[in-house]
UniProtKB/TrEMBL annotation:
UniProt-annotated location(s): Cell membrane
Top-level taxonomy: Bacteria, Pseudomonadati, Pseudomonadota, Alphaproteobacteria, Hyphomicrobiales
Gene3D superfamilies: TolB, C-terminal domain
Keywords: Cell membrane, Glycoprotein, Membrane, Phosphoprotein, Transmembrane, Transmembrane helix
Pfam families attached to this UniProt entry: BPD_transp_2, SSL_N, Str_synth
Main localization of the protein described in the UniProt heading: membrane
GO MF annotation, one: hydrolase activity
Species, as recorded: Bradyrhizobium shewense
Source species, domain of life: Bacteria
PANTHER family, sorted: ADIPOCYTE PLASMA MEMBRANE-ASSOCIATED PROTEIN HEMOMUCIN-RELATED (PTHR10426:SF88), STRICTOSIDINE SYNTHASE-RELATED (PTHR10426)
Designated name of the protein: Monosaccharide ABC transporter membrane protein, CUT2 family
């Protein structure tokens, strides 16, 4: 009964949902709740005009004015700083605009330009002190807040009467202050234009990437050659300019230089920034988040004002929201990994029958032997982590390296080696097409193509998103192995959609169907997901009928067959189940059968733990990762099987001296070439009774021209 309840619990638990909630900061998930409060304002009888056209227009004007300041604050926070002086800069540039217009009678274009220059200079003071002199942003901007506010107070004592007595009638100034275009306030239109540019700047242009990189890790950005100090200084300059633009629209709308202008504005803008989801730690944020935060804060404060709440209540509400959002944001950044490891990991019930015997003398098809004892070694100590190996029509041997390279060894002795191509990620499965292009699955990057001259091209790094998944699973996390059909369809496995390559043990801990088979069409360049819900799918091989593929489920300890065309299109059947080990790559043999690598052998302890999801959940919470129960990957073997699932032969290295872990094998001209992701060599084993002329791609597609 207990096992049945456990199955039901983990079968129907929406595993993506909780992880998605935790992977988003609280400040982002709180926005819908606050929006519901705003709807409550609108439905209140005492606020029946809260969402009227005039009220929304006023809100749009305020959102535009404060939104400019919010954009500047967003830049500063993303780069890893903070600017508490924006309220004082706002007041000073407001005074500057009105003084130039009302007292000096300057033309409006000159007023606009000079005011923006003044705002940039005020921001540049912060930029030089923080960016170049490397002073603390908080204390520096707090001091400039006081200095700028004191300067403003001194200026309005002398010139406030002269500004207040002037009533300029200038159409262009009036347009800036309150006119609309198609019912949209001018300030909102300008704000939208600048916001769109800001979005493109942060997401599509190199300087925007530099800002995000500096906020993520200032030291790493410096080591990468990014001008850190200059970029930080320019962010503060941009903040000052954007603040002055907001002040220009405010000055044109109200034309006042009162003593309370800009007071508390830094709290409003900072609350909007944090509430919108821009992390205070830097390195993460967007223009859209800034816009949402500003809009929410304004609607909340305007709603409270319409309810006749005192100014102190508004400020108290904003301060409370800011405090709560900042606390959760900071605590989340500090404990993110720990929280996710405790809650996001969702083990499921996974029962396997007892494995077939492998002991010497058992007499079964998996009976251990020492046939791989005399395997010869290629590239010993000169290559690391050759997960897959492959040979071309000219007998050149290719293998991946953990350093992100494709290494090739030249016949006949395979002593001479060179870097064929540098990709940057861990190469996994490989396959040649008819034109001798080498397609490679790259962990964390996707599917790539290497032309015969060594040019690296991206084939695809995404697929269609699952409709029912809360997480966006369109990005490829762990493309693993592949094969190519005669029609140019590439079927490749993605072992997991939940974890990155270095986190594969967590996927094994869950033992749930997180993997999928993906199809890439080389003719159209389109990608789609063919199969979902697989338990760490791995090896892929096109079957002899050309209408189906064989694929391995590593943690399912099985080989399955999927028909992608023909009368059985869409069907999946099990070819072999209950293997004694964990299947990896599958490749064609010269006699029409298939080679299969067992990367490691099952253990009774892990088989038992897979039946106890609660135990594995507690293990993930309380035990370090290096002390978890792992699949045994120290001893593996190679087996030959046919399409009916019958094991024809097995090859072992009992002492594990040459190949303690085997992840792939290729038959070529009478030899079996062995790869292993934890090895520092490639094995070469002489096969008895094998076709000495067998070349996989010649057999499938004929000789190249």
């Amino acid at each position: 009964m207990r096992e049945t309840l456990t199955r039901l619990r983990y079968r129907y638990w929406p595993d993506h949902l909780l992880g998605e909630i935790l992977s988003k900061r609280w400040t982002e998930t709180a926005i819908p709740v606050i929006l519901l409060l705003i709807v409550g304002f609108a439905l209140s009888r005492s606020l029946e005009h809260f969402l009227s056209a005039s009220s929304l227009a006023d809100t749009a004007r305020q959102a535009g004015e404060i939104g400019f300041i919010g954009l500047g604050m967003a830049l500063v926070v993303i780069v890893g700083g903070i600017d508490l002086s924006v309220g004082s800069i706002f007041a000073l540039t407001d005074f500057c605009a009105l003084y130039l217009l009302d007292v000096l009678n300057w033309p409006v274009p000159a007023v606009v330009v000079v005011t923006m220059i003044v705002g940039g200079l005020l921001g540049a003071v912060n930029g030089v002190l923080i960016g170049y002199l490397r002073l603390r942003a908080f204390i520096t901007t707090l001091i400039t807040l006081i200095i700028y506010r004191s300067a403003y107070d001194l200026l309005i004592q002398r010139y406030s009467n002269a500004i207040a007595s002037a009533f300029p009638d200038i159409p262009s100034w009036d347009f800036i202050g309150g006119r609309s275009v198609f019912g949209i306030p001018s300030v909102a239109l300008v704000y939208i234009v600048i916001a769109i540019f800001g979005h493109v700047f942060l997401t599509r242009l190199r300087p925007g990437w530099h800002i995000t990189a500096i906020g993520g890790s200032r030291r790493s950005a410096y080591n990468s050659g990014i001008p850190v100090r200059r970029t930080i200084a320019l962010c503060y300059v941009a903040s000052g300019v954007l603040t002055s633009i907001g002040a220009l629209f405010f000055a044109a709308r109200l034309g006042t230089v009162g003593g309370d202008i800009g007071v508390g504005l830094e709290v409003i803008v900072l609350t909007a920034t944090v509430l919108g989801g821009i992390t205070l730690g830097g390195g993460k944020g967007s223009v859209v988040k800034s816009m949402v935060g500003v809009l929410v804060v304004l609607l909340v404060t305007n709603g409270l004002t319409a309810m006749n709440a005192r100014g102190g209540v508004n400020r108290m509400a904003l301060a409370t929201i800011l405090l709560a959002a900042a606390m959760v944001d900071i605590r989340w950044q500090k404990n993110r990994t720990r929280i996710i490891s405790k809650v996001y990991v969702a083990p499921t019930y996974h029962a396997l029958p007892p494995p077939p015997p492998t002991e010497i003398g058992s007499g079964g098809p998996f009976e251990q032997n020492d046939k791989l004892r005399d395997v010869s070694l290629i590239g010993l100590g000169r290559i690391e982590a050759p997960e897959d190996v492959i040979l071309d029509r000219n007998d050149v041997l290719y293998a991946g390296s953990r350093h992100g390279d494709i290494i090739r060894f030249f016949p006949p002795d395979y002593e001479r080696m060179e870097v064929f191509a540098h990709i940057g990620g861990q190469p996994l499965g490989m396959a040649f097409d008819k034109e001798d292009n080498l397609y490679v699955c790259i962990g964390g990057m996707g599917l790539y193509r290497i032309t015969p001259d060594g040019t690296v091209e991206k084939a695809t790094d995404e697929t269609n998103r699952s409709i029912y998944s809360v997480n966006d699973d369109s990005r490829l996390r762990l493309a693993d192995d592949l094969d190519i059909t005669d029609d140019g369809l590439i079927f490749f496995s993605e072992a997991t959609v939940r974890y990155e390559m270095d986190e594969w043990p967590v996927d094994g801990l869950e033992a749930r169907g997180n993997g999928r088979i993906i199809c890439y069409d080389t003719k159209t360049g389109t990608t789609h997901t063919a199969l979902r819900g697989l338990k760490f799918p791995n090896g892929v091989a096109v079957a002899s009928d050309g209408q189906s593929i064989l694929f391995a489920e590593t943690f399912g300890c099985s080989i399955k067959r999927y028909w992608f065309t023909g009368p059985k299109k869409g069907d999946v059947e099990t070819v072999m189940d209950n293997l004694p080990g964990y299947p990896d790559n599958i490749n064609l043999a010269s006699d029409g059968n298939y080679w299969l690598a067992l990367v490691g052998m099952r253990s009774p302890s892990l088989d038992l733990a897979w039946k106890m999801p609660g135990f594995r959940r507690r293990m993930a919470k309380r035990v370090p990762v290096d002390e978890w129960l792992f699949p045994n990957i120290n001893t593996g073997c190679v087996v030959k099987f046919n399409e009916q699932g019958k094991i024809l032969e097995s090859f072992w290295d009992l002492k594990g001296l040459n190949h303690p872990m085997i992840t792939s094998m290729r038959e070529h001209r009478g030899y079996l070439y062995l790869g292993g992701i934890a090895n520092n060599r490639i094995g070469r084993f002489k096969l008895d009774n094998a076709d000495p002329d067998f070349v996989q791609y010649d057999k499938r597609w004929g000789k190249s021209s």
